[in-house]
Design a protein that fits this description.
heterodimer; A: 475 residues; alpha/beta; Cytochrome Bc1 Complex, Chain A, domain 1; 6-stranded mixed beta sheet; 5-stranded mixed beta sheet; 11 strands; globular; B: 432 residues; 2 domains; 15 helices; 43% helix
């Protein structure tokens, strides 16, 4: 067991995080969704002493919750509470982690919810999330990384209450645990928590293997059809590095320049939204990114042992889909070919040095970032950037780009309306021109560039394009 | 109200002033080393969109505010913020529009210079205007696959007949599609509402209030006052239940929304605070209805209720997501029974005190970072114009008694004051 402790008297709150290195990678074959079901049953299944209803009742006046988030490689149980309530609150959290109830009624309810989250949520009404998961299925075929944490329809159906009990016993073990505490931690509290965690088994099942990145150039294209007013588009390819590698940090800077999440800084945002009004936003990533609530910042505690480079094109009008993909690929090709200028490098470095300090404004987030650092064997991302950015050079960045980004082996996933899907794929495979016109006035230089973009050649192979209906994905 | 009003809830000091031009400036020093949040609230939202055909303009205008001034082009504005590593954005609601920046505390002079400049000197051409209109349509499109958005659109459109709350903040789709043609109106919108006496500046974090006021006088002092008069149409009392249905093409879970017209926010108003308590007591995860519908019968996977804080009468809203369309009618009936019960029964005192504790600690737990503090202060300021309304509101909450709860329930949860909108998959939306 590792522990990360960040005591501070600046806040009247205490943040607690238990990070286990178990997630959907641990789902047994045929039981896809088991990690998620186990996590849900911890959060909403009660404890041996308390039914879920009693647990809710106990938490209610504190305005505190016990959150469980299951990702591919990790599961975090976390919460934050005012110091007035710490003793009572921690007692509840201890029970949730050590002695869950595995209640049949709650299991049935949560299993049903998990099925609905996949069938009536992701596949039905979350086109952008669905697009990203569809891309993951291309990046990691046949591996747990390639399907949503919720699992598959068949896998969820096969889950039993006993499965979750066995999963908890063999994966929520001390060798997989990092304990995190932050905020106004009282004297003796750390020792008490560590003592309690001794009740977990020392070890259990071995950790499963990682996906093998598919080789080869050329696009794999997956068009998933469902009623869609506008089309969500995701592109990407696996990376061989993570925060544990030196190259990650210059690549992280390059990505900030190219497509920083929810800002107007990025090349993609400028070209696609600001210049052309194609959609609401366009971003890129060099690691898995989950937005924390309504903020623009990454949620901590979703680290992964393998990462991917991805581009997120928010829904565009069907008539603009082909053009938008061409534009994104063209800009990526330019990035790889030309790299950052010294000026762009300096600007982005200055931005990241200050911006990253904003990612850790609360004790809970500071703690989460520090624990992720421990996952990768280093410091928090914010601290790594603070120590690495001053030494970094534009050459480091441009070398990292050329070494790790490759526009010719992108995979493409599109959530498309059934009506236009076939014509879209034919045009894509034929590299047919995709001229674009706008309702509104456009700068002459943008219009001139559009003529070239409309003919940008993509390495699409008709034999590697598939159109499949939404209801067959993750079935 | 013996003793109650003296209790303070807001945990930080508030220091405030009003500039000669009417701009309210509020500073909240916090123990957040090196960080500060700069929030400007314009007291204009979709509520101000009184002209037919021009819904959605407050939100659209929020986008235009990023389109530059003679001093700072959009590129230069973004470059400066980028160099500071600031997190800047904006959002629009029914009642107000918020422009927020969080940055290193020592960047405050630059942030204020940059922000004040665009409130006073915004300048853009037709082309930029039309590109941004396309981005707004893109935003509508991105939201279009989400059933809740369709539900809220229909709910507002059905429950209101005259007031501007009839449309959502995004606006009616036909108006969004017409936005590229409304360049001149956009200039008028700016001239009417973006005035010093219609705005609030809140700075929270690692700051010295006097220095904040000095900077505000220097940068915002020349902002002209002169907000236009606004007369929002008065919504006539609803005299009969209204019902609408939405058919959804994708296989989503059915939704049931039930809305009642409720009083406008009033920090001293007992009825509004009683509704806050009712929402918790009868619909929170510890309520008997949640136990029945979510945990025991398992007909519903999501149940929530709340009274909106609005400048004009908004909704008390109950929302349920139903797992199977065949139970939608039963769910609706169970919600109606609960609302009747709220009027006819007396909430036990210990339950009431748990709810008040919950609301108070929930409020406090949302005040951990400078942006959360600034945003909360803005919320109350745009509603009431006074920072004291935060503590007043919680003091009022302390005064709510069981009799207030049943009285509020009896008055607000009348069937004739009710609008029900359901959404279900399939060609007709039948069943829900």
């Amino acid at each position: 067991m590792k522990s990360v402790l960040l005591p501070s008297d600046a806040s009247p709150f205490v943040a607690i995080r238990f990070l286990f290195t178990t997630g959907s990678v641990d789902d047994p074959a045929g039981k896809e969704g088991l990690a998620a079901a186990t996590g849900a049953l911890l959060a909403e299944g009660g404890t041996q002493k308390l039914t879920y209803e009693q647990l809710l009742e106990a938490l209610y006046p504190m305005a505190a919750g016990i959150g469980v988030h299951v990702d591919r490689d990790v599961t975090v149980v976390q919460g934050i509470v005012h110091r007035d309530h710490l003793d009572r609150y921690y007692d509840l959290m201890r029970q949730v982690v050590l002695t869950p109830r595995y209640d049949t009624k709650e299991f049935d309810r949560l299993k049903d919810d998990q099925h609905n989250a996949l069938v009536a949520g992701l596949r039905a009404v979350d086109d952008e999330g669905f697009g990203m998961e569809s891309l993951a299925s291309l990046l990691y075929p046949g591996h747990a990384y390639g399907r949503p944490v919720e699992g598959t329809v068949r896998g969820i159906r096969a889950l039993t209450r006993e499965d979750t009990e066995a999963f908890h016993r063999t994966r929520f073990t001390r060798d997989r645990l990092t304990l995190g505490l932050a905020g106004c931690i009282p004297d003796g509290f750390v020792e008490r928590v560590i003592g309690d965690l001794g009740a977990l088994p020392a070890a259990g099942a071995p950790r499963p293997s990682l996906p093998v990145a598919p080789a080869g150039k050329g696009f794999d294209t997956l068009v998933v059809t469902k009623p869609a007013r506008a089309w969500a588009i995701s592109l990407g390819h696996p990376l061989s590095i993570t925060r544990a590698d030196d190259d990650f940090y210059p690549l992280f800077l390059a990505n900030s320049y190219f497509g920083e999440h929810r800002t107007f800084n990025g090349v993609l945002m400028t070209k696609m939204r600001s210049d052309r009004g194609l959609n609401y936003g366009d971003y890129s990533y060099v690691e898995s990114f989950v937005q924390d609530g309504a903020s623009t910042f990454a949620m901590p505690n979703v680290p992964r042992r393998r990462q991917a480079f991805t581009i997120w094109i928010r829904p565009v009008a069907a008539a603009h889909a082909h053009f938008a993909i061409r534009l994104a690929v063209r800009e990526l090709r330019r990035l790889v070919r030309e790299g950052l200028t010294p000026q762009a490098f300096e600007e982005t470095r200055a931005f990241l040095a200050n911006y990253s300090a904003l990612w850790v404004q609360t004790p809970s987030r500071r703690l989460g970032f520090a624990m992720d650092g421990a996952f990768y064997g280093g410091k928090s991302l914010v601290d790594e950037l603070a120590s690495r950015l001053p030494e970094m050079t534009v050459e480091d960045v441009n070398v990292a780009i050329r070494r790790h980004l490759d526009p010719e082996r992108l995979k493409l996933a599109v959530i498309a309306d059934p009506e236009g899907a076939k014509g879209f794929v034919e045009a894509l495979a034929a590299n047919a021109p995709s001229p674009v016109s706008y309702e509104s006035a456009t700068k002459p230089e943008v219009e001139a560039e559009d003529l070239t973009i409309a003919k940008e050649q993509l390495p699409v192979d008709a034999a590697r394009c598939r159109i499949i209906p939404a209801e067959t994905m993750f079935d | 109200m013996p003793g109650a009003a003296s209790r303070t809830t807001f945990p930080y000091p508030i220091v405030e002033t009003v500039l000669d031009n009417g701009l309210q400036v509020v500073a909240v020093p916090l123990d957040t080393p090196g960080l500060a949040a700069h929030y400007v609230a314009i007291r204009a939202g979709s509520r101000n969109e009184v002209e037919p055909g021009l819904s959605g303009f407050a939100h659209f205008f929020e986008h235009m505010m990023f389109r530059g001034t003679p001093r700072f082009t959009p590129e230069r504005y973004n470059d400066v913020l980028k160099r500071l590593g600031a997190d800047g954005n904006a959002f629009t609601t029914d009642d107000w529009t918020c422009y927020h920046v969080v940055a290193a505390a020592d960047a405050l002079p630059t942030v204020m210079d940059l922000e004040a400049d665009r409130f006073m000197n915004l300048s853009y051409g037709v082309e930029a205007f039309q590109k941004e209109a396309a981005a707004v349509l893109g935003e509508y499109n991105k939201n279009a696959s989400i059933p809740f958005n369709a539900l809220f659109e229909k709910l507002h459109d059905t429950a209101y007949t005259a007031h501007t709350y009839k449309h959502t903040t995004m606006g009616f789709l036909k108006d969004i599609e017409d936005m590229p043609n409304q360049y001149d109106y956009s200039l008028a919108f700016f001239a009417r509402w973006y005035r010093a006496d219609n705005a609030v500046l809140v700075v929270a974090g690692d700051i010295d209030p006097e220095r904040v006021f000095d900077l505000a006088r220097r940068h915002y002092g020349a902002w002209r006052p002169g907000v236009a008069p606004l007369s929002t149409p008065v919504e006539p009392a609803q005299t009969g239940e209204r019902v609408a249905r939405i058919a959804w093409a994708a296989p989503t879970l059915p939704l049931v929304a039930m809305a009642f017209h409720a009083p406008a926010f009033d920090a001293e108003g007992i009825e509004g605070h009683a509704l806050d308590v009712l929402a918790q007591a009868y619909f929170a995860p510890t309520s008997p209805l949640h136990k029945e519908l979510v945990l025991d019968r398992q007909w519903v996977d999501w149940l929530t209720a709340g009274a909106e804080d609005r400048r004009d009468p908004g909704f008390f809203l109950v929302l349920a997501r139903v797992k199977d369309v065949e139970h939608a009618g039963d769910v609706r009936a169970a919600i109606e029974r609960t609302l009747e019960l709220a009027g006819s029964s007396k909430l036990p005192a210990d339950r009431l005190s748990q709810v008040v504790s919950r609301l108070r600690y929930g409020f406090l737990s949302g005040l951990q970072a400078p942006d959360q503090v600034a945003s909360t202060v803005c919320h109350y300021l745009q509603l009431t114009g006074a920072t004291s309304s935060i503590d007043t509101s919680f003091a009022t909450l302390d005064r709510v008694g069981a009799a207030d709860l049943s009285a509020a329930a009896m008055r607000v949860f009348r069937p004739s004051n009710r609008t029900v909108v359901t959404l279900a998959p399939g060609p007709t939306g039948e069943g829900a």
